């Protein structure tokens, strides 16, 4: 059917995979509500995509706010009602990682990761689902991780949040398929972005060069959302060539 004229909400849109997803959607003539905490990142994204927006006659509406807070979701829903009255795609991409042995991780680390990774997924999905149920279609894509499929050392809490995202998607798929709504999980391995920089990764890490690029993950997102109405992708598990399974 193509994505032309659809409306997408993308969280974690200021950098990395989220930013590249927004750009790819705009190129596909999708209107995008881009949500992230940092207003400066959104200003830069708006400037970088100005020509695409004008050429394809699509809207990019930036929303600055904490994705784990209800007031940010309420801002998004108000924009949907005022500007579009529908949401075709929700990309739950927002997330953070703080790595270390469990002995060294704190309650704050737990709350920060669980709120950013899972609470935001719950809040945005719950708020947007009524639009999709009413229109009898829609696509929810959770950007999870290999850490949602396999327990990894120094990632106990992060793994817990990503296993939660994958389980959430599986359960929701069973609930909403009858409404024509698709729910998918994308579980990539290491991605060469700013993710977890200073909280477990450093720019000097030589393994980064062999990680997936953000564009690799965006290609997988586009594959998922471009399926025919008869087809749904439940899960994609992808890793760099350099990483063993």
Structure description:
This protein has 7 helices and 7 strands, in the order βαβααβαβαβαβαβ. The chain is α/β, with parallel strands linked by helices. The relative contact order is 0.14. The mean pLDDT is 93. Strand 5 (138-143), helix 6 (156-176) and strand 6 form a beta-alpha-beta unit. Helix 1 (16-27) packs across helix 7, helix 4 (70-84) runs parallel beside helix 5 and helix 5 runs parallel beside helix 6 (156-176).
Helical percent range? 40-55%
The count of DSSP E runs of length 2 or more, i.e. the number of strands, is 7
Number of domains: 1
Under CATH, the homologous superfamily reads NAD(P)-binding Rossmann-like Domain
Structural class: alpha/beta
The CATH topology is Rossmann fold
**Total helical elements:** 7
The rough form would be described as globular
Mean pLDDT: 93
Q: How do the helices and strands follow one another from N- to C-terminus?
A: EHEHHEHEHEHEHE
CATH classification, class level:
Alpha Beta
Strand order of the largest sheet: 3-2-1-4-5-6-7
- What Rg, in angstroms, do the CA atoms define? 17 Å
Task: Outline the biggest β-sheet.
Answer: 7 strands, parallel
The percentage of residues in β strands lies in 15-25%
Name of the CATH architecture: 3-Layer(aba) Sandwich
């Amino acid at each position: 059917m193509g994505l032309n004229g659809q409306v997408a909400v993308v969280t974690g849109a200021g950098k990395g995979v989220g930013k590249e997803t927004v750009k790819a959607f705009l190129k596909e003539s999708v209107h995008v509500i881009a949500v992230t905490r940092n207003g400066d990142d959104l200003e830069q994204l708006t400037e970088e995509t100005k020509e695409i927006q004008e050429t394809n006659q699509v809207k990019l509406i930036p929303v600055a706010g904490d994705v784990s807070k209800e007031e940010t979701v309420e801002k998004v829903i108000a924009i949907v009602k005022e500007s579009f009255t529908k949401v075709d795609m929700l990309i739950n991409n927002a997330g953070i990682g703080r790595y270390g042995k469990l002995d060294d991780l704190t309650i704050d680390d737990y709350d920060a990761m669980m709120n950013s990774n899972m609470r935001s997924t719950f809040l945005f999905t719950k708020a947007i689902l009524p639009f999709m149920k009413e229109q009898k279609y829609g696509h929810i894509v959770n950007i999870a991780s290999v850490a949602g499929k396999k327990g990894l050392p120094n990632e106990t809490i992060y793994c817990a949040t990503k296993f939660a995202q994958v389980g959430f998607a599986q359960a929701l798929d069973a609930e909403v398929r009858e409404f024509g709504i698709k729910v998918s999980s994308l579980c990539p391995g290491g991605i060469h972005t700013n993710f977890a920089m200073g909280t477990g990764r450093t720019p000097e890490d030589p393994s980064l060069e062999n990680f997936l690029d953000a564009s690799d993950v965006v290609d997988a997102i586009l594959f998922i959302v471009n399926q025919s109405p008869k087809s749904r992708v439940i899960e994609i598990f992808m890793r760099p060539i350099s990483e063993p399974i």
